[in-house]
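User: Can you predict the 3D structure for this chain?
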Amino acid sequence: MASSPCGNGNFDSGLEIKTRSVEQTLIPLVSQITTLINHKDKPKKSERTLAAIHRVGQAVSVAVGRFVAVGEAIATENQELKDEMGQACFEARRAGDAIAQLTDVASALPSQADGRVTVFSDRTGMVKAARLLLSSVTKVLVLADRIVIKQIITSRNKVLVTLDHLERVSTFQEFVQIFSQFGNEMVEFAHLTGDRQNDLKDEKKKARMAAARAVLEKCTMMLLTASKTCLRHPDCESARINKDGVFHRMRCALEQVIDIVTEARSCGENQLLPASIYNGIKDFKSSVECLRENLYSSSPQSMGSQLEALVERTEDFTDSAYTSHEQRQAILSVCQLARQDTQQLMNAWIEAQSVHAKEATEDMEVAILKTCQSIGDLRREVHKVAVGRATDLLKVHGEQLPLRALKTAGAEGNLEAVAEYSRKLTEQKEQLVETCRLLCHVSGTEPLEITCVHAEETFHVIGPQIISAAQTLALHPSSKIAKENLEVFCEAWESQLCDMALLLREINDVFEGRRGDKRPYLSLPRPGKLSANLKTAKAVKLDAEEQTSMAKLGLELRLLSSDLDTEVEKWEAQEHDIVRQSQSLASMAYNMYLFTRGEGLLKTTLDLFHQAEVLSEEGLQLCSALRTFSTQLVDEEKSVVMTELEKLVALCQQLQMGAKTPVQGKTATFQKVDSSIQTTKGILAVVLYLLPFCNKLSKKYKSERSSLGSPQDWREPTQKDILASVASGCCVEESACV
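Assistant: Here is the predicted structure, written as structure tokens:
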């Protein structure tokens, strides 16, 4: 909820700031108004102070004037908001004029005692004007934000209309023409929704938007091949089922996007997340620890019921046919231990209440510690089972045996073999769906829970679509379009397996405490890893002046980490060790940049030095990966890599030694911060030189291997690829298949 920094009681409570762009626009205005309000405490000012306040007041007035002019122009172009926008602009202009008048030197009166000018005698007037200004400006921004929402809705409506036309076409020529239009409209919709996703403040909404946009992106290529197959084989029932499934999924994803941007009630009702074990453990542990503060806030019976509800959620693990006997027994044993410890706590709690104790007794404290420990053991046990299951499945399914068999059987027209391998794929699908459900229990954050649900839904939908595509090919084994269609759906399955591997890594990193601000799976070092350093070091927090002097250095680090991210994204093999470790370096450097701004998870210099030490270790691991990579290079290429590698090793060792060296005093600590960031910049600069060079060599050797018959890695088609396919490929397909 938006609120005034001035304690505005009249602020429009109905205006909620939901996007970062609106929030960031308000920050400078809030800062200037705060400056004016703070100067109200001393009515007598020197000429220099008075001139500064006058400049701020006039600057606010001029800025408001420009702002209002833009708002009025928006109102003219959007008649449905004209009245509301006009009123908000009028109020903003009036408030800006009032502030200008209150800070006008000409209206101030000199004091008879010392000749100094006395200003701002009307403190109430200044506060009232500030409140009105913040309220009206926020309203203008929120109204302008409605225009963005309207653009997204309009774009969605265009896509839906074209989608309906595509579904009803009966000739290739008509399909090619309409799909070209559809592609352009989808590009526009993708840009608008991508900007909106990045602008949203709510992480859950961002995750839902990302899931819906991923469906639309992947379904666009499926829609192309499924529609072409249906046109080529209009009497084929499996082809029609395949096509209908894609159209239905796209419409659902389009509606989900609109539900998110308009905050429709159905979005909240339909997107309720399943009750997870992680959240149950967090809530139960909080209830237990609250007993230290208040013995009478709840009853022992309610705590017992809360534990039983939590244990009931573990049935998704213990009732699973894919859970081993040893894993099932381990979970049941921990649940039983948690019950015993909770019962002891409840007994001690009842006894403390019977003697009207005001705080937790010694017996209660012991029972609280034991209960929290057994609940922690339960979390670790279910995490181990879920992650272990997912890891094993990804290893098995990485070979893609059922998919390859389905392609072969379909191309041979062998319906019996297609049916047999369809059953195996269905079993795989059920295993993956259940595993996604287990991962949702242990994901640790709501955005990751949403991603788990999306993965579960994707496997659930794509599995049957692959089977219908294989059936179509088996019925028409000589059809190039049917073969292409099956390939596309198989690639979508493989793509989701890759996404699941990334999701698994993020869940693991959250569990181990490495969740950062930029990426959800990186930040602080693992608990206990640097325990020796923790005992000897003393945390120091930089003051405002030192933070300011760090700002320029931090900005340079931010630019380097951004450049590193850009280079990482250019690699096709995103699972390469060099890529993953470079991503880690970029994320940790970004956390250090946030520290220079006084933001993020690194709150003190001690946190920063821990992060620097972990970054140096990650850098040395990158050196190891680069050394391994260099073994496949020829002499000249290897020499270049090894030369830069020596620099990187030296810088990582320098950062590591510097981070471990204890210092005393504020000046020495500040110098250590400066040195750590400077060395980190040096590390990133070397990696930035090596990444594009190694990427170029990797592509070169991959191309050479490919020419000798090595299988090529699958790359997900981009929107540009899809449109190019329509422009150049569909016409050829039409003539070839009719």
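The chain has 24 helices and three strands. The radius of gyration is 31 Å.
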